[in-house]
Amino acid sequence: MPNETQRLSMLRKARSMICVLFIQSLRLYKSIKLLMYRAGQTAEHSFVLDFFGSFCFNTKRTEVYLYFRPMEKMLKDLFAGQPYDEKNFFLIAGPCVVESEELIMEIADKVSTICKNLGIPYVFKASYRKANRTSSNSFTGIGDETALQLVKKVGDTYKLPTTSDIHAHEEAAVAAKYIDILQIPAFLCRQTDLLIAAGETGKIVNVKKGQFLSGPSMKFAVEKIQKAGNNNIILTERGTTFGYQDLVVDYRNIPWMKEHNVPVVMDVTHSLQQPNQTTGVTGGNPQLIGTIAKAAIATGADGLFIETHPNPSKALSDGANMLKLDLLEGLLQQLIKIRKAVI
Questions:
Q1: How many CB atoms are closer than 10 A to CB 324?
Q2: For strand 181-184 and strand 204-208, is the pairing parallel, antiparallel, or unpaired?
Q3: Ramachandran angles phi, psi of 305, nearest 5°
Protein backbone atom coordinates (compact mmCIF):
# COMPACT_ATOMS: atom_id res chain seq x y z
CA MET A 1 0.00 0.00 0.00
CA PRO A 2 1.39 3.46 -0.87
CA ASN A 3 2.05 5.80 1.99
CA GLU A 4 0.48 9.27 2.27
CA THR A 5 3.31 11.02 0.39
CA GLN A 6 3.20 8.54 -2.47
CA ARG A 7 -0.58 8.76 -2.65
CA LEU A 8 -0.49 12.57 -2.92
CA SER A 9 2.18 12.34 -5.60
CA MET A 10 0.03 9.91 -7.60
CA LEU A 11 -2.97 12.21 -7.29
CA ARG A 12 -0.95 15.19 -8.54
CA LYS A 13 0.27 13.20 -11.55
CA ALA A 14 -3.27 12.03 -12.29
CA ARG A 15 -4.57 15.60 -12.17
CA SER A 16 -1.81 16.73 -14.53
CA MET A 17 -2.63 13.96 -17.01
CA ILE A 18 -6.34 14.84 -16.90
CA CYS A 19 -5.57 18.51 -17.56
CA VAL A 20 -3.32 17.64 -20.52
CA LEU A 21 -5.95 15.31 -22.00
CA PHE A 22 -8.66 17.93 -21.55
CA ILE A 23 -6.61 20.65 -23.25
CA GLN A 24 -5.69 18.36 -26.15
CA SER A 25 -9.32 17.29 -26.56
CA LEU A 26 -10.50 20.91 -26.48
CA ARG A 27 -7.96 21.91 -29.14
CA LEU A 28 -9.03 19.05 -31.37
CA TYR A 29 -12.69 19.85 -30.82
CA LYS A 30 -12.18 23.52 -31.71
CA SER A 31 -10.34 22.61 -34.91
CA ILE A 32 -13.05 20.17 -36.02
CA LYS A 33 -15.79 22.59 -34.99
CA LEU A 34 -14.30 25.33 -37.13
CA LEU A 35 -13.94 23.03 -40.15
CA MET A 36 -17.51 21.79 -39.83
CA TYR A 37 -18.88 25.29 -39.35
CA ARG A 38 -17.10 26.53 -42.47
CA ALA A 39 -18.34 23.52 -44.42
CA GLY A 40 -21.90 24.02 -43.21
CA GLN A 41 -22.15 20.46 -41.97
CA THR A 42 -24.53 19.24 -39.31
CA ALA A 43 -23.77 17.01 -36.37
CA GLU A 44 -26.01 14.17 -37.46
CA HIS A 45 -24.18 13.92 -40.79
CA SER A 46 -20.73 13.86 -39.26
CA PHE A 47 -18.58 10.91 -38.24
CA VAL A 48 -17.26 13.17 -35.47
CA LEU A 49 -20.53 12.83 -33.58
CA ASP A 50 -19.92 9.09 -33.13
CA PHE A 51 -16.34 9.73 -32.03
CA PHE A 52 -16.90 12.53 -29.57
CA GLY A 53 -20.47 11.71 -28.60
CA SER A 54 -22.09 13.98 -26.10
CA PHE A 55 -18.71 15.34 -24.95
CA CYS A 56 -18.52 17.89 -27.74
CA PHE A 57 -21.95 17.97 -29.29
CA ASN A 58 -25.46 18.52 -28.16
CA THR A 59 -27.00 15.40 -29.71
CA LYS A 60 -30.53 16.72 -29.16
CA ARG A 61 -30.01 19.24 -31.96
CA THR A 62 -29.19 18.74 -35.64
CA GLU A 63 -26.27 21.12 -35.61
CA VAL A 64 -22.87 21.27 -34.01
CA TYR A 65 -23.07 22.65 -30.50
CA LEU A 66 -20.87 25.71 -30.87
CA TYR A 67 -19.19 26.87 -27.70
CA PHE A 68 -18.82 30.20 -29.50
CA ARG A 69 -21.88 30.33 -31.72
CA PRO A 70 -22.42 32.82 -34.55
CA MET A 71 -24.40 35.90 -33.57
CA GLU A 72 -28.14 35.28 -33.20
CA LYS A 73 -30.42 36.85 -35.83
CA MET A 74 -32.20 38.97 -33.24
CA LEU A 75 -28.85 40.54 -32.33
CA LYS A 76 -27.93 41.10 -35.97
CA ASP A 77 -31.23 42.92 -36.40
CA LEU A 78 -30.61 44.88 -33.20
CA PHE A 79 -27.17 46.03 -34.34
CA ALA A 80 -28.09 46.55 -38.01
CA GLY A 81 -27.31 50.26 -37.81
CA GLN A 82 -23.80 49.79 -36.44
CA PRO A 83 -20.52 48.81 -38.10
CA TYR A 84 -18.95 45.97 -36.11
CA ASP A 85 -17.03 42.71 -36.24
CA GLU A 86 -19.48 39.79 -35.97
CA LYS A 87 -16.83 37.73 -34.20
CA ASN A 88 -16.69 40.21 -31.34
CA PHE A 89 -18.70 40.06 -28.14
CA PHE A 90 -21.34 42.76 -27.71
CA LEU A 91 -21.36 45.34 -24.94
CA ILE A 92 -24.19 46.61 -22.75
CA ALA A 93 -22.86 49.65 -20.90
CA GLY A 94 -23.80 52.92 -19.30
CA PRO A 95 -24.47 54.46 -15.89
CA CYS A 96 -26.46 52.61 -13.26
CA VAL A 97 -29.31 55.11 -13.39
CA VAL A 98 -30.29 58.21 -15.35
CA GLU A 99 -28.84 61.01 -13.24
CA SER A 100 -29.07 63.80 -15.81
CA GLU A 101 -29.21 64.35 -19.58
CA GLU A 102 -25.69 65.73 -19.58
CA LEU A 103 -24.24 62.63 -17.91
CA ILE A 104 -25.92 60.00 -20.09
CA MET A 105 -25.05 61.90 -23.28
CA GLU A 106 -21.42 62.14 -22.21
CA ILE A 107 -21.21 58.41 -21.48
CA ALA A 108 -23.07 57.37 -24.64
CA ASP A 109 -20.88 59.59 -26.80
CA LYS A 110 -17.62 58.22 -25.41
CA VAL A 111 -18.63 54.54 -25.27
CA SER A 112 -20.19 54.55 -28.75
CA THR A 113 -17.03 56.11 -30.20
CA ILE A 114 -14.83 53.50 -28.49
CA CYS A 115 -17.03 50.65 -29.70
CA LYS A 116 -17.10 51.91 -33.28
CA ASN A 117 -13.31 52.10 -33.30
CA LEU A 118 -12.99 48.58 -31.89
CA GLY A 119 -15.78 46.95 -33.91
CA ILE A 120 -17.88 46.08 -30.84
CA PRO A 121 -21.69 46.20 -31.15
CA TYR A 122 -23.06 48.39 -28.38
CA VAL A 123 -26.28 48.72 -26.35
CA PHE A 124 -26.67 51.81 -24.16
CA LYS A 125 -27.94 51.02 -20.65
CA ALA A 126 -29.35 53.24 -17.92
CA SER A 127 -32.08 52.45 -15.42
CA TYR A 128 -34.96 54.91 -15.52
CA ARG A 129 -35.71 54.06 -11.89
CA LYS A 130 -33.92 52.05 -9.19
CA ALA A 131 -36.65 50.19 -7.33
CA ASN A 132 -34.32 47.87 -5.42
CA ARG A 133 -32.25 50.00 -3.05
CA THR A 134 -30.88 49.00 0.34
CA SER A 135 -32.04 52.18 2.07
CA SER A 136 -35.18 54.27 1.57
CA ASN A 137 -32.86 57.30 1.60
CA SER A 138 -31.02 56.17 -1.55
CA PHE A 139 -31.49 57.92 -4.91
CA THR A 140 -34.06 56.19 -7.12
CA GLY A 141 -34.38 58.43 -10.18
CA ILE A 142 -35.44 61.72 -11.74
CA GLY A 143 -38.94 60.53 -12.69
CA ASP A 144 -39.95 57.57 -14.83
CA GLU A 145 -41.24 59.30 -17.96
CA THR A 146 -38.49 61.92 -17.96
CA ALA A 147 -35.79 59.27 -17.61
CA LEU A 148 -37.31 57.01 -20.28
CA GLN A 149 -37.52 59.93 -22.71
CA LEU A 150 -33.85 60.68 -22.08
CA VAL A 151 -32.83 57.06 -22.70
CA LYS A 152 -34.78 57.15 -25.97
CA LYS A 153 -33.06 60.42 -26.87
CA VAL A 154 -29.67 58.74 -26.42
CA GLY A 155 -30.73 55.96 -28.77
CA ASP A 156 -32.03 58.39 -31.38
CA THR A 157 -29.02 60.70 -31.15
CA TYR A 158 -26.32 58.04 -31.39
CA LYS A 159 -28.31 55.43 -33.37
CA LEU A 160 -27.98 52.89 -30.58
CA PRO A 161 -30.27 50.20 -29.18
CA THR A 162 -31.11 50.91 -25.55
CA THR A 163 -32.09 48.98 -22.44
CA SER A 164 -33.44 49.60 -18.98
CA ASP A 165 -34.90 47.41 -16.24
CA ILE A 166 -38.54 47.01 -15.34
CA HIS A 167 -39.88 45.96 -11.95
CA ALA A 168 -43.60 45.17 -12.33
CA HIS A 169 -45.76 43.70 -15.09
CA GLU A 170 -47.59 46.98 -15.70
CA GLU A 171 -44.28 48.70 -16.53
CA ALA A 172 -43.46 46.40 -19.47
CA ALA A 173 -45.75 47.97 -22.09
CA VAL A 174 -44.86 51.49 -20.97
CA ALA A 175 -41.09 50.96 -21.10
CA ALA A 176 -41.34 49.09 -24.43
CA LYS A 177 -42.39 52.36 -26.11
CA TYR A 178 -39.00 53.85 -25.33
CA ILE A 179 -36.38 51.08 -25.24
CA ASP A 180 -35.30 48.08 -27.30
CA ILE A 181 -34.43 45.55 -24.59
CA LEU A 182 -36.45 45.00 -21.43
CA GLN A 183 -34.17 43.96 -18.58
CA ILE A 184 -35.53 41.79 -15.76
CA PRO A 185 -33.67 42.29 -12.46
CA ALA A 186 -32.08 39.22 -10.87
CA PHE A 187 -34.29 39.34 -7.79
CA LEU A 188 -37.37 39.24 -10.04
CA CYS A 189 -36.27 36.56 -12.51
CA ARG A 190 -38.93 34.08 -11.30
CA GLN A 191 -41.86 36.53 -11.37
CA THR A 192 -44.16 34.85 -13.87
CA ASP A 193 -46.46 37.81 -14.55
CA LEU A 194 -43.46 40.09 -15.10
CA LEU A 195 -41.78 37.68 -17.53
CA ILE A 196 -44.99 37.11 -19.47
CA ALA A 197 -45.75 40.83 -19.69
CA ALA A 198 -42.24 41.52 -20.93
CA GLY A 199 -42.52 38.71 -23.47
CA GLU A 200 -45.86 39.96 -24.77
CA THR A 201 -44.30 43.28 -25.82
CA GLY A 202 -42.30 41.46 -28.51
CA LYS A 203 -39.14 43.23 -27.38
CA ILE A 204 -35.91 41.43 -26.56
CA VAL A 205 -36.06 40.35 -22.91
CA ASN A 206 -32.80 40.14 -20.96
CA VAL A 207 -33.29 38.14 -17.77
CA LYS A 208 -30.61 38.37 -15.11
CA LYS A 209 -30.02 35.08 -13.30
CA GLY A 210 -31.00 35.32 -9.67
CA GLN A 211 -28.13 35.23 -7.20
CA PHE A 212 -29.91 32.24 -5.67
CA LEU A 213 -30.35 30.20 -8.89
CA SER A 214 -28.23 27.89 -11.04
CA GLY A 215 -27.73 28.33 -14.76
CA PRO A 216 -29.70 25.18 -15.67
CA SER A 217 -32.71 26.34 -13.63
CA MET A 218 -33.01 29.47 -15.79
CA LYS A 219 -34.70 27.30 -18.41
CA PHE A 220 -37.99 28.01 -16.62
CA ALA A 221 -37.61 31.76 -17.11
CA VAL A 222 -36.89 31.13 -20.80
CA GLU A 223 -39.97 28.89 -21.12
CA LYS A 224 -42.25 31.49 -19.54
CA ILE A 225 -41.22 34.13 -22.07
CA GLN A 226 -41.45 31.68 -24.95
CA LYS A 227 -44.98 30.72 -23.91
CA ALA A 228 -45.85 34.41 -24.28
CA GLY A 229 -44.90 34.00 -27.95
CA ASN A 230 -41.47 35.61 -27.73
CA ASN A 231 -38.18 33.87 -28.55
CA ASN A 232 -36.06 37.03 -28.33
CA ILE A 233 -34.35 36.22 -25.05
CA ILE A 234 -30.97 36.93 -23.43
CA LEU A 235 -29.78 35.51 -20.12
CA THR A 236 -27.28 37.28 -17.90
CA GLU A 237 -25.01 35.86 -15.22
CA ARG A 238 -24.47 38.27 -12.31
CA GLY A 239 -22.93 36.21 -9.54
CA THR A 240 -24.11 33.87 -6.80
CA THR A 241 -24.75 34.72 -3.16
CA PHE A 242 -21.80 33.80 -0.96
CA GLY A 243 -22.71 34.40 2.65
CA TYR A 244 -24.64 37.51 3.60
CA GLN A 245 -22.47 40.24 2.08
CA ASP A 246 -20.65 38.87 -0.93
CA LEU A 247 -21.03 37.27 -4.36
CA VAL A 248 -18.92 34.78 -6.31
CA VAL A 249 -19.04 33.92 -10.01
CA ASP A 250 -19.51 30.31 -11.05
CA TYR A 251 -18.38 30.37 -14.67
CA ARG A 252 -20.04 27.02 -15.35
CA ASN A 253 -23.27 29.01 -15.58
CA ILE A 254 -22.18 30.61 -18.86
CA PRO A 255 -22.03 27.38 -20.92
CA TRP A 256 -24.93 25.94 -18.92
CA MET A 257 -27.19 28.87 -19.82
CA LYS A 258 -26.07 28.71 -23.44
CA GLU A 259 -27.62 25.25 -23.52
CA HIS A 260 -30.98 27.06 -23.39
CA ASN A 261 -30.14 28.27 -26.94
CA VAL A 262 -30.01 31.96 -26.04
CA PRO A 263 -27.16 34.50 -25.98
CA VAL A 264 -25.50 34.77 -22.56
CA VAL A 265 -24.12 37.96 -21.05
CA MET A 266 -21.80 38.42 -18.09
CA ASP A 267 -22.79 41.27 -15.77
CA VAL A 268 -19.26 42.16 -14.76
CA THR A 269 -19.85 45.04 -12.38
CA HIS A 270 -22.87 43.78 -10.40
CA SER A 271 -21.09 40.47 -9.87
CA LEU A 272 -18.58 42.42 -7.80
CA GLN A 273 -21.13 43.93 -5.45
CA GLN A 274 -20.92 43.43 -1.71
CA PRO A 275 -24.60 43.75 -0.78
CA ASN A 276 -26.46 44.07 2.51
CA GLN A 277 -23.96 46.39 4.16
CA THR A 278 -25.07 47.79 7.50
CA THR A 279 -24.25 51.30 6.24
CA GLY A 280 -27.19 51.04 3.84
CA VAL A 281 -24.90 51.45 0.84
CA THR A 282 -23.82 48.47 -1.30
CA GLY A 283 -20.06 47.93 -1.47
CA GLY A 284 -17.98 46.47 -4.28
CA ASN A 285 -14.63 45.32 -5.66
CA PRO A 286 -14.11 47.35 -8.86
CA GLN A 287 -10.41 46.42 -8.95
CA LEU A 288 -11.54 42.95 -10.09
CA ILE A 289 -13.60 44.15 -13.08
CA GLY A 290 -10.86 43.16 -15.52
CA THR A 291 -10.51 39.72 -13.95
CA ILE A 292 -14.23 38.93 -14.14
CA ALA A 293 -14.53 40.24 -17.71
CA LYS A 294 -11.52 38.32 -19.02
CA ALA A 295 -12.69 35.05 -17.51
CA ALA A 296 -16.18 35.59 -18.94
CA ILE A 297 -14.85 36.03 -22.48
CA ALA A 298 -12.63 32.97 -22.08
CA THR A 299 -15.60 30.85 -20.97
CA GLY A 300 -17.82 31.78 -23.89
CA ALA A 301 -19.89 34.83 -22.92
CA ASP A 302 -21.60 36.37 -25.96
CA GLY A 303 -21.76 39.79 -24.37
CA LEU A 304 -20.63 41.85 -21.39
CA PHE A 305 -22.62 44.16 -19.14
CA ILE A 306 -20.51 46.92 -17.59
CA GLU A 307 -21.76 49.92 -15.66
CA THR A 308 -19.47 52.89 -16.13
CA HIS A 309 -19.28 56.49 -14.95
CA PRO A 310 -16.83 59.39 -15.41
CA ASN A 311 -16.44 59.58 -11.64
CA PRO A 312 -17.81 56.50 -9.82
CA SER A 313 -17.22 58.07 -6.41
CA LYS A 314 -19.81 60.72 -7.34
CA ALA A 315 -22.32 58.31 -8.89
CA LEU A 316 -25.78 58.38 -7.34
CA SER A 317 -26.17 54.58 -7.49
CA ASP A 318 -23.76 51.60 -7.42
CA GLY A 319 -20.64 53.73 -7.59
CA ALA A 320 -18.73 51.21 -5.46
CA ASN A 321 -18.61 48.63 -8.24
CA MET A 322 -18.56 50.78 -11.40
CA LEU A 323 -15.74 51.04 -13.94
CA LYS A 324 -14.26 54.49 -14.38
CA LEU A 325 -15.12 55.60 -17.90
CA ASP A 326 -11.51 56.42 -18.77
CA LEU A 327 -10.54 52.78 -18.14
CA LEU A 328 -13.10 51.22 -20.47
CA GLU A 329 -11.22 51.44 -23.78
CA GLY A 330 -8.07 49.77 -22.45
CA LEU A 331 -10.09 46.94 -20.94
CA LEU A 332 -12.03 46.34 -24.16
CA GLN A 333 -8.80 46.19 -26.15
CA GLN A 334 -7.53 43.42 -23.86
CA LEU A 335 -10.83 41.55 -24.09
CA ILE A 336 -10.80 41.58 -27.89
CA LYS A 337 -7.40 39.87 -27.82
CA ILE A 338 -8.76 37.15 -25.53
CA ARG A 339 -11.83 36.70 -27.73
CA LYS A 340 -9.64 36.25 -30.82
CA ALA A 341 -7.51 33.71 -28.99
CA VAL A 342 -10.41 31.49 -27.92
CA ILE A 343 -12.74 31.44 -30.94
A1: 14
A2: parallel
A3: -115, 120
Which parts of the chain fold into alpha helices (H)? 4-39, 47-52, 73-78, 101-118, 144-158, 169-176, 192-200, 219-227, 253-258, 289-298, 328-342
CA angle 124, 125, 129 (to 5 degrees): 145
Say what the pLDDT of residue 32 is.
55
Pairing of strands 90-94, 122-125: parallel
Distance CA 287, CA 270 (A): 13
| pLDDT single digits (tens) 220-229 | 999 999 999 9
| 163 three-state secondary structure | strand
For the chain, the structural domain boundaries read 4-55, 73-342
Record the pTM: 0.79
- N-to-C CA span, the chain: 46
Measured CA to CA, the distance from residue 39 to residue 70 in angstroms comes to 14
Return the closest-CA partner of residue 128 out of 194, 198, 183, 173: 183
Nearest to 240 by CA among 232, 227, 253, 249: 249
Tell me the one-letter amino acid at 255: P
Residue with more model confidence, 280 or 269: 269
CATH fold label, 73-342: TIM Barrel (3.20.20)
Answer for the pair 98, 312: CB distance below 8 angstroms, yes or no.
Answer: no
Angle between helices 169-176 and 192-200 (to 10 degrees): 20
Residue 65 has pLDDT above 50, yes or no: no
How many contiguous H segments (helices) and E segments (strands) does the chain have? 11, 13
CA geometry: angle at 122 spanning 119 and 126, to 5°? 155
Structure confidence by residue, pLDDT tens digits, 125-176 = 999 987 765 666 666 779 999 999 999 999 999 999 999 999 999 999 999 9
What secondary structure letter does DSSP report for 318? S
* Per-residue pLDDT, 27: 54
